[in-house]
Design a protein that fits this description.
Length: 528
């Protein structure tokens, strides 16, 4: 699926770098009213404004970025006013996707006839809407935003002048907070925390189907967290000597001439410069309905005329990096990725309720139905229709303005995994434990170290990625994570190496605050 959420997932993946040190000559900028601050990289050129907002331009491909704070009676009004204040007519915007990270609400809008696109991350506090807006045209790509643009949002910090922020002091308060969030969304969420190899906290809230409460044994879509499974499979082939991280990709995929310009390492760190292109039929309701990775690849690569940026010069999150990794993996290994992962990754780790396809989940493991608002039904059905599925097949139920979708499968190289929250933390534990779980070695310690290490651009600047993982730091506390999103998918997996702690938050609905729930859970577990 060419998901409408790719840019939102990218924002969510990078937004976790809050608190990181100033990078690459970035300067700290403060709101004149003292409510917030953020970092601006030297690559972003400040533009004149009327003083009510900040405006920066990234030159090539050109992307406009805005930081806005506007008074508003409620959040939706604030979002409209934020767009209008920077000269983007909110009445002409057509919503194409929603997601969340922490307290940020993320929305993407469909490109207009002129190719102009927009996306926004917003928060509403004390009658003020705070917004981070990105926009561009035909020469830029909403699913391949430059790293300096990501860093602006990732460094955004509120001060006490923006209002006090709720923080639970007990698990009872946390669960009350979760229940309130999920009750209003109509969906469900499952949380698990693992410390020193043992599950120390689990909680589930909401309904996995219209009349069925969820529980901690329910499987949820991982979304793009799946990319870490693909990365793990690729690194296993590196260990076998079948793949060289620093070999050009054309070595393994000779028909793709542009592959001579970048390496396998570039693919894993999202530094190839590959463009986003529309492809269809990338979801299914059965394993047999999913096209092969080779079929999808053969549809994509002939249309790639040039790269968006020089490989290694920057990073830009892109699903197609992992399509190419999946193709490359299957060619060198001779095995299908989904079946391989079940045998060589999930089973050794003990992930007994995890699979790439619904029918591969073990008997007795229920799957949460994705939930979207009625407002989002039309964009979702547009995506489904491209894959040959109509409303009757897609929609399970409509209740009080909420739409329950039948569970669907996503292309296994970039978004297909489904599993329980405790299984997700066991996957993270494999990395925390040096590549081994219960005596079963999945990766060498060196591979784990490489995957968790910050990669650098051609000019030596640190990037937000390891090999597959997003690498961040809050104050002095480093962490490694990945987010996932889609229609009724909003998931986050993070681990803290210094604390030997992993937390997974998996949800069947968008914009419930996965990042906030994860951070609250991690803090309470750490304080025990």
């Amino acid at each position: 699926m060419k998901t409408a959420y790719a840019v939102l997932v990218a924002l969510a993946a990078i937004a976790v770098l809050v608190g990181c040190s100033t990078l690459g000559g970035a300067q700290m900028v403060e709101d004149p009213a003292g409510r917030f601050s953020f970092q601006v990289s030297a690559e972003l050129a400040p533009q004149p404004t009327d003083g009510s907002y900040f405006h920066y331009t990234y030159p090539a491909p050109e992307v406009q970025t805005y930081i806005v704070a506007v008074d508003a009676e409620e959040e939706n009004t604030g979002i409209s006013r934020a767009f209008d204040s920077v000269g983007i007519d909110s009445r002409e915007l057509v919503l194409a996707g929603v997601a969340s990270f922490g307290e940020w609400r993320l929305q993407r809008y469909a490109p207009g006839e002129d190719g102009q696109w927009s996306a926004i991350a917003s928060q509403y506090r004390d009658s003020t809407a705070y917004a981070f807006i990105v926009s561009g045209g035909k020469n830029s790509d909403p699913d391949s935003l430059p790293t300096p643009v990501f860093r602006m949002l990732s460094s955004f910090e509120f001060s006490s002048a923006a209002g006090e922020v709720f923080r639970p002091v007990s698990f009872a308060e946390l669960e009350e907070f979760i229940d309130t969030r999920i009750l209003s969304s109509g969906g469900s969420v499952s949380i698990a925390a693992l410390k020193d190899g043992e599950i120390v906290y689990q909680y589930a809230s909401g309904k996995r189907a219209p009349d069925t409460p969820t529980d901690t044994s329910t499987a949820y879509h991982w979304g793009s967290i799946t990319k870490l499974v693909t990365a793990t499979a690729v690194m296993q082939q590196v260990e076998l000597g079948r793949i060289d991280l620093d070999a050009s990709v054309v070595t393994y995929v000779p028909e793709f001439a542009l592959g001579s310009s970048f390496t396998v390492r570039n693919l894993l760190s999202h530094t190839t410069g590959l463009p986003d292109e529309s492809v269809t039929h990338l979801i299914s309701y059965s394993r047999s309905g999913m096209p092969s990775l080779e079929e999808v690849w053969s549809d994509y690569w002939p249309r790639v005329g040039k790269l968006v940026f020089e490989p290694g010069s920057s990073s830009a999150y892109n699903n197609f990096n992992f399509l190419l990794l999946g193709v490359l993996f299957e060619r060198v290994s001779g095995e299908e990725l989904a079946s391989y992962a079940q045998q060589h990754i999930f089973a050794p780790i003990g992930m007994d309720r995890t699979a790439h396809f619904s029918e591969d989940l073990p008997a007795g493991t229920s799957e949460a139905k994705p939930v979207i608002s009625k407002e989002m039904l039309s964009p979702a059905l547009t995506e489904l229709a491209r894959s040959g599925y109509d409303r009757e097949k897609a929609v399970a139920a409509e209740i009080d303005g909420l739409v329950y979708l039948n569970p669907y499968n996503i292309l296994p190289c970039w978004g297909g995994v489904k599993g329980t929250a405790d299984d997700a933390t066991r996957f993270a534990w494999m990395f925390l434990n040096g590549g081994e779980v219960d005596g079963n070695r999945v990766l060498d310690k060196r591979s784990v170290r490489w995957m968790m290490s910050v990669q650098k651009s051609n000019d030596g600047k640190p990037l937000p990625y390891g090999l597959g993982w997003v690498v961040g730091r809050q104050g002095r506390d480093p962490y490694v994570e990945h987010a996932g999103g889609g229609e009724g998918i909003d998931s986050l997996l993070r681990f803290y190496p210094k604390q030997n702690l992993a937390v997974a938050v998996l949800g069947s609905v968008n914009s419930y605050g996965a990042g906030t729930i994860l951070e609250f859970t991690a803090q309470l577990v750490s304080d025990r």
